[in-house]
Amino acid sequence: MVRDEISRVISNTAYQAYERKLERSVMSEEVPHHVAIIMDGNRRYARSFGWSVGEGHTRGKEKLEEVMQWCMDLGIRILTVFAFSTENFNRDEDEVEHLMHLFDENFRALGDDERVHRNRIKVKVMGRRDLMSPEVVEAIEYAEERTKDYDEYCYNIAVAYGGREEIVNAVRQIAKKVEEGGIKIDDIDEQLISAHMYTANMPDPDLVLRTSGEVRVSNFLLWQMAYSELYFADVFWPGFRRIDFLRAIRSCQQRRRRYGM
Ligand code: IPE
Ligand code: MG
Questions:
Q1: Which of 42, 65, 91, 215 has the largest count of CB atoms under 10 Å?
Q2: Segment 226-235, tens digit of pLDDT
Q3: Is residue 156 annotated as part of the catalytic site, yes or no?
Q4: What are residue 164's phi and psi, to 5 degrees?
Q5: Catalytic residue chosen out of the listed positions 4, 40, 94, 112
Q6: 210-215: long-range contacts at Cβ-Cβ below 8 A with a sequence spacing of 24 or more?
């Protein structure tokens, strides 16, 4: 018993020392400006403990709050997360309902969150609002409206989002402007397309990271990730540790250095 306790203390101390060392290394270089995350593995995490799917999503939500704080601590100004895809609507009705309830609760709570106001975080939700319930849309509008004038940090949450759909949407808006004579076909360039994405006025992500060991981009930020570093972490999202996050950032910094950027 005492031995177990001693070895736990030693391993905790070693872990903290390693985390501090990693953090020093990460902070000694330029940190990414914009980090995008595909949060994956909530259900597998829950299953590994014999918990319900809903519990997995709740833990995932708690993890996201932690990661938001890590970003602020490290000076990462823009965080974009994939919370729910258009395909996720095909999941069990109960699960979709539970997730929508979490979104409803969360966006409202974000709008009132003292940390959001103290740190001047602009909240933005990217995705198909026509597929969400009026309550969820109202909660989103509440959070966005209350934070619309902030510019210190940006926190983008992709809900009912699909990357191809985002591109289709941009093309439609541009075509409409051409049709109405507002712009000419020759005016269409990369910048104009970027300006019609949900991420208009934001730099593209420097780092896109996905948890749970899956090596796919799953229709996330297709246009924006053209030059992003990709990082795949082998842990389920609720089990994502600060060390894993620091490792991802350090890997991104190392690769950029190697390619002379
Ligand atoms: C990510 O975890 C959260 C959402 C997509 C809503 P999953 O729910 O995809 O969990 P796994 O990947 O099935 O374990
Ligand atoms: Mg998944």
A1: 42
A2: 999 999 999 9
A3: no
A4: -65, -40
A5: 40
A6: 210/37, 210/38, 210/40, 211/37, 211/38, 211/39, 211/40, 211/41, 211/235, 211/236, 211/237, 211/240, 211/244, 212/40, 212/41, 212/44, 212/236, 212/237, 213/41, 214/40
pLDDT in tens, 234-247: 999 999 999 999 99
Give yes or no for residue 42 CB within 6 A of ligand 1. yes
Ligand 1 in reach of 147 Cβ (< 6 A): no
* 233 Cα–ligand 1 center, Å: 15
- Domains of the chain are 31-162+204-252 (3.40.1180.10)
Q: How far apart are the first and last CA of the chain?
A: 52
Check if 219 is active-site. no
Q: Is the CB of 61 under 6 A from ligand 1?
A: no
Atom of ligand 1 nearest to the CA of 44: 14
Q: Residue 121: in which H helix or E strand, if any?
A: strand 121-126
pTM beyond 0.85: yes
Alpha helices in the chain (DSSP H): 2-27, 42-48, 53-74, 93-112, 114-118, 134-147, 163-179, 190-194, 242-258
Q: In what order do the strands lie in the sheet with 207-210?
A: 121-126, 153-161, 78-85, 34-38, 207-210, 229-232
Lowest average pLDDT, out of 8-22, 42-56, 89-103, 175-189, goes to 8-22
Per annotation, catalytic residue among 4, 12, 42, 88: 88
Residue nearest to atom 5 of ligand 1 (CA): 84
Ligand 1 site, residue 40, Cβ cutoff 6 A: yes
